[in-house]
Each structure stands twice: as C-alpha cells, then as structure tokens.
C-alpha cells in the first residue's frame, strides 16, 4: 500500500509522466541517495511534469543509515527525517523504470510487468567508512544525471 507522502509526485505531472523507482533491500542507503539526486535533477531541469520519482525497499529498515545521512548532508540534503518504506509488486506495476542498487530486479518486478529494469550493482554503504560512502554517493550522482540525460536530454 502506498501512502501519498511516500511517493514524490509533482502536482504538474501528467498521466504520461515517466515513473522511475529506485529500489534496494532496506531503502536506507543507495536508493535514498538516488532518490535525493533524482528529485534535485527533476527540479533543476524543470521536468516535474514528465518525471515522477518513487523509492522503496523489499525489507525496509527503520531509519536511513547514519553514514548516508552524513555524506548527503555534505551535499545539502537532509535525509535524517526520511523514512524507509516498502515497495511491492502492485506499486511496481505502475512504474516505467525500476533501478535496483545491487539486489537485482528478480523478485521485485512482477512477471507481467513490461517496464525497463536496471541494476546498478552498487556496494551497500551500511557500516562503511565515510570515504567509501562518499565514493558510492558520487557514483550514484553520476548515474542519476546520466539517466536524466537519457530520459529528458538538456530540456
């Protein structure tokens, strides 16, 4: 079940907007980083009417990892108050692109789903030192930017 507060839908988005879901197991690290950068990209590019961002985990944690909160704070993101949430196959059915963070889309995407599944195969930042988490963060930032280049170009 999806709580409206958990899905970042721009009020200007129309029915043809591309829905992108960033998914990892706990929704407490990589997918939170990707979601923060995706929201920023969407807003900076002014494509809120064309891109919707969704995030979730298959077995959500109770809070975003401390090291993720710290390194994202360095970039101006406040993730301490974000709450990891579950994402299920019913919600995935309404998504166009599912990006997993190293846990593969197998078992996440329903057999009847015909969207685009991608696995970025990233290290889990949980318990890693801040330099390692910064490297993961920077990798994700570049991948999110490239995804937006692919989806909307320089609009």
pLDDT under 50 segments (min length 5)?
Answer: 1-13
Order of helices and strands: EHEHHEEH
Instruction: Tell me the radius of gyration.
Output: 14 Å
Reported by name, the CATH topology is Rossmann fold
What is the approximate shape? globular
Total strand segments: 4
Strand arrangement, major sheet: 2-1-3-4
What's the CATH class label? Alpha Beta
Percentage of residues assigned to helices: 25-40%
| CATH architecture call | 3-Layer(aba) Sandwich
Number of domains: 1
The secondary-structure class comes to alpha/beta
The total count of helices amounts to 4
What's the CATH H-level homologous superfamily? Response regulator
Mind summarizing the main beta sheet? Answer: 4 strands, parallel
DSSP strand content: 5-15%
Distance between the termini: 34 Å
What does this structure look like?
Pfam families: LMWPc. Residues 18-150 form the Phosphotyrosine protein phosphatase I domain. InterPro entries: Ptyr_pPase, Ptyr_pPase_sf. The longest helix has 23 residues, at 130-152. Helix 1 (30-45) links the parallel strand 1 and strand 2. The chain has one domain (16-148): Rossmann fold (3-Layer(aba) Sandwich). Helix 2 packs across helix 4. It has helices at 30-45, 66-73, 89-92, 130-152, and strands spanning 18-24, 51-57, 97-100, 116-119. A 4-stranded parallel beta sheet has the order 2-1-3-4, with helices on one face. It is built from 4 helices and 4 strands. With 155 residues, it is an alpha/beta fold.
